[in-house]
């Protein structure tokens, strides 16, 4: 699955790093990436293109527990799961906030 589409790039450009600062769990989720085989969810709320073309992402992430943090898009793209699967993106995040995804 393609993790970066033209639509996602537009969202990233409209929401640079710190653009949703202070919103906390009310921040808009631009894209949700997830591990289809187990632990790993990344709710991306802000992004910034780097000089090398990669994207620095910020959001609310869950592997063992929920926490705010940074990651690089290329790190997600490099993950290869059993059977050759990779990280996927949720197609139904439009108009949702972080709070909507927390159990």
Description:
Helices cover 15% and strands 29% of the residues. By secondary structure, the chain is of the alpha+beta class. The chain has one domain. The protein has a 5-stranded antiparallel sheet. The longest helix has 9 residues, at 6-14. The protein starts with 5 loop residues before the first helix and ends in a 14-residue tail after the last strand. The mean pLDDT is 96.
Give the averaged pLDDT, no decimals. Answer: 96
Shape: globular
Structural domain tally? 1
C-alpha termini separation: 26 Å
List its traits:
single chain, 103 residues, alpha+beta, 5-stranded antiparallel sheet, 2 helices, 29% strand
What is the topology?
Elements lengths: L5 H9 L16 E4 L6 E9 L5 E8 L3 E7 H6 L9 E2 L14
Antiparallel strand pairs: 1-2, 1-5, 2-3, 3-4
């Amino acid at each position: 699955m393609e993790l970066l589409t033209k639509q996602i790039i537009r969202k990233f450009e409209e929401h640079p790093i710190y653009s949703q600062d202070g919103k906390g769990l009310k921040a808009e989720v631009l894209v949700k990436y997830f591990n289809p085989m187990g632990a790993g969810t990344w709710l991306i709320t802000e992004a910034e293109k780097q000089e090398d073309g990669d994207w620095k992402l910020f959001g609310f992430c869950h592997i063992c527990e929920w926490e705010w943090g940074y990651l690089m898009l290329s790190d997600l793209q490099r993950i290869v799961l059993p059977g050759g699967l990779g990280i996927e993106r949720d197609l139904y995040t439009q108009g949702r906030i972080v709070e909507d995804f927390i159990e």
